[in-house]
UniProtKB/TrEMBL annotation:
Chain ranges passing through the membrane: none
Taxonomic superkingdom: Bacteria
InterPro entries, sorted: Fosfomycin_Res_Enzymes, Glyas_Bleomycin-R_OHBP_Dase, Glyas_Fos-R_dOase_dom, VOC_core
Name under which the protein is recorded: Putative glyoxalase family protein
Upper lineage: Bacteria, Bacillati, Actinomycetota, Actinomycetes, Kitasatosporales
PROSITE patterns: VOC
Stretches assigned to the VOC domain: 8-123, 141-259
């Protein structure tokens, strides 16, 4: 059994009302590859990633975050996590079993403390992938996911306790206190983060580009195409990664990024970064200023799928 129950982020699954526009957005604008569809569910891979898919889109009358999926090292880790969660009263959607999604594997789903569906899996077959070439402005892989929470300290404690995520850094506001917590499950600065928000929802999903030039080319291409830019281009302090945030056709925020920091976990000590310092939001000073309007654009709509597992 692996020491940590979670090894990495696999995919983020969403349900949307305007399904056809969402499919066209990922395929024609965002740069993902459609790898499967049954008419009501479509799977998208990133060309540089061995994951079978990094985003799944489902047609639905209610917009929601269907689930967030993480990898585990082996079956023993999956079984031990399921046993631990169940013994502490965490609601399991099902017991560990063979997965029926592309690539197969072995895993299970459960609800986090706020009712999101989380999946943990292992033995998923690797997808044939390729090296992203110079100046090719498409995502290499899924980088991280950020969750909105009205009780972020409680959610942080839950992920630390049950999934062994570790706090890397925190952005703090002079009046509100902590407003964003960056969490890791491997040496990557963060695979997930938690943002303070009035309601439970998806804050954003982030996609890694090949390098600075590809990141800028992709950001500029979307801006020229009239995709609504929320914030960027710039470079954050926590994680030292670049950012440009856009709205997809259903109002979810999606990010292009690159150069996310890799840590020496043995020597790392979490920082507190004040939002009063403009370099906390953007070290370069090139993005539109972070303000209440930009923050509200990332609040998203309240999630309608809490404590209700997606049908597939």
């Amino acid at each position: 059994m692996h020491d940590r129950p979670i090894t990495h982020l696999r995919h983020v699954d969403i349900a949307v009302q305007d399904y056809e526009k969402q499919i066209a957005f990922y395929e024609e604008k965002w740069g993902l590859t459609k790898v499967g569809s049954d008419g009501d569910v479509t799977y998208f891979a990133a060309e540089g990633s061995p994951e079978q898919y990094v985003i799944r889109v489902r047609r639905s009358q209610e917009k929601r975050l269907d689930l967030v999926s993480y990898g585990a090292a082996d079956r023993e880790s999956v079984d031990a996590l399921a046993e631990r969660l169940a013994s502490d009263g965490v609601h399991l959607v099902g017991e560990p079993d063979v997965l029926q999604t592309p690539g197969g594997g072995y895993g299970f789903r459960f609800f986090d403390v706020e009712g999101r569906t989380v999946e943990v899996s292992t033995e998923v077959a690797a997808r044939q992938h390729r090296r992203i070439e110079e100046r090719e402005d498409i995502p290499v892989r899924l980088s991280h996911v950020v969750l909105n929470s009205p009780e972020p300290e409680k959610l942080l404690a839950w992920y630390e306790r049950y999934l062994d995520f570790r706090l890397t850094d925190t952005n703090v506001h002079p009046r509100l206190g902590g407003i964003m917590w960056f969490l890791r499950c491997n040496p990557q600065h963060h695979s997930m983060a938690i943002a303070r928000c009035p309601h439970v929802s998806l804050h954003h999903a982030s996609f890694e580009m090949r390098g600075l030039d590809e990141y800028m080319r992709g950001s500029g291409r979307l801006m020229r195409d009239g995709v609504h830019k929320v914030w960027g281009p710039g470079r954050h302090r926590a994680g030292d990664n670049t950012f440009t945030y856009f709205h997809d056709p259903n109002g979810n925020t999606m990010e292009y990024t690159t150069e996310l920091e890799t840590l020496d976990e043995d020597s790392w000590h979490p920082h507190l970064y004040s939002t009063e310092d403009p370099e906390t939001s953007d070290q370069w000073g090139t993005s539109n200023p972070m303000n209440d309007f930009v923050s509200r654009e990332m609040f998203n709509d309240p999630d309608r799928g809490l404590f209700a597992a997606p049908p597939v």
